[in-house]
Amino acid sequence: MEIWINPACSKCRGALDLLDAEGARYTVRRYLEDVPSADEIRDVLDRLGLEPWDITRTQEAEAKELGVKDWPRDEASRGRWIEALAAHPKLIQRPLITADDGTAVVGRSEEAVREALSRS
């Protein structure tokens, strides 16, 4: 299991606390420092079953500067969204947990983290 975190994020810290309390084995990826490539983002999106706009933090200053709220949310624009996430990792929703069974979850709630645990 791998968890993408921003250490300054309380949801990320909460997810780590829960994983630790459950004795889970996991790898931490500080994705603002170890920025995922566009291909890695595509892979995580496939594992999540989501589209890039579903995991974009549209309220971030960078998102507002880019104007992502006004971008089309369709297949033709998918690549543009993914490239933006790769170029501006602050826009990626957190924490993202990839489970051992090939799936992933956005671990913003205790239930979501427990779901990832049940899959590993």
Count of helical segments?
Answer: 5
* Structural class based on helices, strands and sheet pairing: alpha+beta
- Tell me the overall shape: globular
| Straight-line N-to-C gap | 7 Å
The strand order across the widest sheet is 2-1-3-4
InterPro entries: Arsenate_reductase, Arsenate_reductase-like, Thioredoxin-like_sf
Keywords: Oxidoreductase
Pfam family, one: ArsC
GO molecular function: arsenate reductase (glutaredoxin) activity
Summarize the structure.
This protein is α+β, with helices and mostly antiparallel strands.
What is the topology?
Blueprint: E1 2-5, H1 10-21, E2 27-30, H2 38-48, H3 61-66, H4 78-87, E3 96-98, E4 104-106, H5 110-119
Parallel strand pairs: 1-2
Antiparallel strand pairs: 1-3, 3-4
How would you describe this structure in keywords?
120 residues; alpha+beta; Glutaredoxin; four-stranded mixed beta sheet; 12% strand; globular; Arsenate reductase; Arsenate_reductase-like; Arsenate_reductase; oxidoreductase; Thioredoxin-like_sf
Describe this structure as you would to a colleague:
The N and C termini lie close together (7 Å). The relative contact order is 0.22. The longest helix is centred in the N-terminal third of the chain and has 12 residues. By secondary structure, the chain is of the alpha+beta class. Helix 1 packs across helix 5. It contains 5 helices and 4 strands; from the N terminus they run βαβαααββα. It is globular and about 40 Å long. Strands 2-1-3-4 form a 4-stranded mixed β-sheet, sandwiched between helices. The chain has a single domain, classed as 3-Layer(aba) Sandwich (Glutaredoxin), CATH 3.40.30.
